Predict the structure.
Amino acid sequence: MSSEGSSRILRAVPREKAFYFFTSIGNYTGASAVSLKEFVEKVNEVNVKSLEFHLYRADFEKWIAQVLEDAWLAGEVRRLQKFGLMGEPLRNQLYLTVSRRFKRLTSPPGSDQF
Amino acid sequence: MRHRSTVLSLDAKDLEILKALQEDSRQTYTAIGKRVGIAHSTVYDRVRRMEMQKVIRNYTALVDFEKAGVKKIMAIMTVYADPKETERVALKLAESPEVLEVYTSLSDELLIMAKVVAASQEGLHAFVANSVAPLNGVLRIRTSIITRKVKETSFLINDYLEGLHL
């Protein structure tokens, strides 16, 4: 991916386009993410019920595709739904998926880790 | 008997008229006059004065939405906000057509309560996620969808006249 493409995915978006973590309909945890970096951090911190709620509503993949504009990562997150994971195993897999992508996008050109 | 108010000056006849209008705002001034014991022209004058003073804010119809076939869900939303932003958040919520009522309360912590209406659970969630959570100062939100209405009424002037718990 070009550095321009990476920069676009890694940018901070306006607050109104942030991802807001809910645990159920209308119940906002107070955690939000305005960038992929923050998203990775919050995946590691928020109530795991929030991850279950959003993953199976396809909220994560929609935000990653439409706001961060990272179609590849959106596809990887979508694939996680098939495993039917819940609780900490879900957190671990989601964290692994998004943190790997973040590391790849932030690593210097030519140091491809994958 | 004059009632306590530094802004408005309502007497017992005014309150009787308000009570009559709250029970049925479509009744004639003649009917109200007979009930209160004053001429219909006096009722008219008093009603006009209370309208001008905004004591009477509106005449409206109470609609039974279930019978009208209008599908909607209602929810009580509690917004925990930064104390410095609470007033601004409450005013912002009040601007939304989805929000029917807004209150602020200082219990254990300062919070905002709002009655919200939406066409569906998805619509409710979209409103909270896209229009409430992003407001500056919002710390977290709890939303309870109302599943059954046990009672819904307005405060009646009749209660005031009878001095119930006031």
About this structure: Chain A touches chain B at residues 15-16, 18, 20, 22, 25-30, 32 (CB under 8 Å). Residues 3-104 of chain A form one domain.
